[in-house]
Amino acid sequence: MHSGPTNRKRHVYPLLAWVSALVVLLLAVGLSLVLFLVRAPYQGYAGEDVVVSIAPRTPSMTIFTLLESKGVLRDARLGVVALKIFHRGKTLKAGEYRFSGARTPEQVVLSLVAGDVVTYRITVPEGFTAEEVFTLFSSQGFSTLRDYQALFQRPDELEGLPKDAPTLEGFLFPDTFTITRSMGAREILGAMTRQFTRRLPEGFEQKARAQGLSVLEATTLASLVEKETAVPDERPIVAGVYRNRLRKGMLLQCDPTTIYALKRLGIWRGSLARSELAVDEPYNTYVRPGLPPGPICNPGIASLRAAITPADVPFLYFVAAGDGSHRFSADYDGQQRNAVRYHEVRRAARAQAP
């Protein structure tokens, strides 16, 4: 009889079937376990939340390893699995992420794919100079002061500036901006110059031209108004005074321009001496006629509006009143009387001081 091989085949086929079934079962159990872990919430860090910074062009596995070390993922491999199962073909975005509470690997990967980065709201006050703007952002870790300064004299590289603008000064619109850690100096400043274009008063260029000014000159005038007074009702009057002086060919004699000139020269000491009014510098309107070559700060919307719609007043002079406001006069004698009153107010204030 020759039935041996046939009998052996009969025994082998059931064994292979059992092995295959066992393998399928193990795979199913393993897959179920992986899916369970991918959807199982986990928090391996102490505290309410943890912040993780991911640099651009960081490989996915490096990112997941970092998240494991920070206690965001139980195992870096679970991040890999979640990415392949739920977001195949997608990339993880760089930036700063804040994770709070227990999260599943699926949720963690979703945040990274969506670029759900931490955002910050930074408010730039009206009247800040470009240098003050740069310091505001760099001091909070948004790029470096050197990066901003490198762009200061390259206004043609950003949107929203007049072609004849000598620097970025005047066109970094004061507003509240939402930014992220991944944004560089160019991107932040670009957002500010674009906001300048968007927020310009309606008909700004046409109304400036009607005043005999270019956009640059009108913005420069607005920056002088911004620095001279914080009283809203006075802004059109101050603009009217400067318009009158320009028409008569008088020196503008604006103290803030002298301060700006001294800062450009690196010799500003914190207070303005009478002798410094004679410093020969393009921005010093006590020496140079007309408007400065460009703005001396970044004016707000009210000052920009005042520059193109100045008040129709006879005044040629103004001096501080001692309470934040100013007194205006149409001639030099009136200016002298107002100046005397200002010094009297200051002396009285010093006498009452403890």
Describe the structure.
With 354 residues, the chain is mostly helical. The protein is 49% helix and 8% strand. The protein is built from 13 helices and 6 strands. The protein has helices spanning 4-38, 60-69, 76-86, 105-114, 130-138, 145-152, 185-199, 204-210, 215-228, 235-248, 255-265, 301-308, 332-352; strands at residues 49-54, 95-100, 120-123, 176-179, 317-320, 326-329. The strands form 3 sheets. Strands 1-2 form a two-stranded antiparallel sheet. It has a two-stranded antiparallel sheet with strand order 3-4. A hairpin with a 5-residue loop joins strand 5 (317-320) and strand 6 (326-329). Helix 3 crosses helix 4, helix 5 (130-138) runs antiparallel to helix 6 and helix 9 crosses helix 12. 30% of the residues are buried. The mean pLDDT is 90.
- Show unreliable segments: none
Helix content: 40-55%
Termini gap: 127 Å
> With helices defined by DSSP (H or I, 4 residues minimum), what is the helix count?
13
Strand count: 6
Shape: elongated
Name the structural class: mainly alpha
Rg:
34 Å
Element pattern in H and E: HEHHEHEHHEHHHHHHEEH
Largest sheet: 2 strands, antiparallel
Question: What's the oligomerization state?
Answer: single chain
The residue-averaged pLDDT reads 90
